[in-house]
Amino acid sequence: MRGKRLIPPLVLVGVWQVVCSVGLVPAFKLPSPFQVLTGLAELMTVGLPPGHLLHTHALYSLERVFFGYTAAVLTAIPLGIGMGWSRRVRYLLEPLVEIFRPIPPLAWIPIAILWFGIGTKSAAFIIFLGAFFPILLNTASGVLGIDPILVEAILTMNANRRDIILKVLVPGAIPSIITGMRIGLGLGWMTLVAAEFSGVKQGYGLGYMIMTARDIQRPDEVLAGMIVIGVTGLVIDGMLRLVEKSLIRWR
Amino acid sequence: MALSLKLSGLTKIFPGNGTMEEVRVIDPLDCHIEQGQFFSIVGPSGCGKTTLLRIIAGLEPASEGTILLNGEAVANNDNRVGLVFQEFALFPWRTTVQNIEMGLEILGVPKTERRQEALKYVREFGLTGFEDTYPRMLSGGMKQRVAIARTLVANPEVLLMDEPFGFLDSQSRMEMQNFLLEVWEKRQTTVVFVTHSVSEAIYLGDRVMVMSNRPSSIMDIFDIDIPRPRERSHPRLSKLREEVFQLCARL
Question: What pTM did the predictor assign?
Fold first, then answer.
């Protein structure tokens, strides 16, 4: 059964290779899988620009995501718990959230650059914005979904506010929190690459690498970079799913 | 026998607002419940018996009146009072043992100690083999055993039970009634037991308080002078049941 999941991607690659081999599409528009693989190897060994190797690009991108995403997790979860728990907090914050949420993180790029300059800080800020709202709203709805009787149950055990939060609200909302974290990470990762399109100071980053490949007209390396982004996203999400599995065995 | 629980002038009014009228749920109510007594409360649904229990448990404030336990006012979420809910209200993310030890955890009992204490209850309550099972996998009767153990573990002086067997089928309901009597006889805890089943109230109780429709007041209190262990077919039982029914018919 497991092996069957590999069939669709393999079919896709096969069709792609055929389309290129019979000359249906010119190579400057769509390089063949084999050419992309060669491009990937070149990115890993020679680098683009030369000397700037693929894994360093990836590490820079991951670093930006790490900072922005951590900041989003650390702020959105407590705020989401507050919004889910207290009607007053919800009432106060909802308009603000609903105004900021529809603004695409990328629309913040000019302001981010103005405030933080070009570099890690402004990229992290963009990622923060991308990841923040899904985590916030999922946490809040997770807390709202907790059966109030469970809060009463712990209240009869002489619990204080801290107990209520740590022993009922957080564990009860964990499934939603993790869903929010997965969505947030996906969005953050997507946003990052786009944020890097607009420039990075250090000369590293997967988005930056792709833009450089475009500038020197290397579609094979553009596609190779895209695949690296996709696979990295898959791996990161897989790690979060493992966390999810171990935390919500009770479901 | 020492005076255990004393309710004086207890009144509950849900205040009205623009759209809703004020609702008088409990009219001034006075009642003494002796230490170690099994005290049943019956009444038509919506008569405020659950509200009464919630007030004693500290989940809801009384509009007027006092509750004294051994001469001392019952505080909010008093440790001396424990409540068992009809809906079990087990924490779904906690196993049997973890549910039982919650109360001790809140009181700050060290981990190994509270685990040992919880395991004692697991054995006493016939839950061996289900220590690490999540509530989702337990039968109704077992869930309620866990819930009772969870409440008793903190050693309350008064055990409040709100239609605890209402969700069980008749077979496990009878089993649980006998089980509860065993537990009660062994510990001599005061039990205040709310039910809408007259037979259940009489079979279990030393005294049975019959409440009227809203606003509730005490219609009568019956002393159930049948020696224990009781036969379910005891003629006194059906005679008392007849009397209570007649009283209820006048509501």
Answer: 0.86
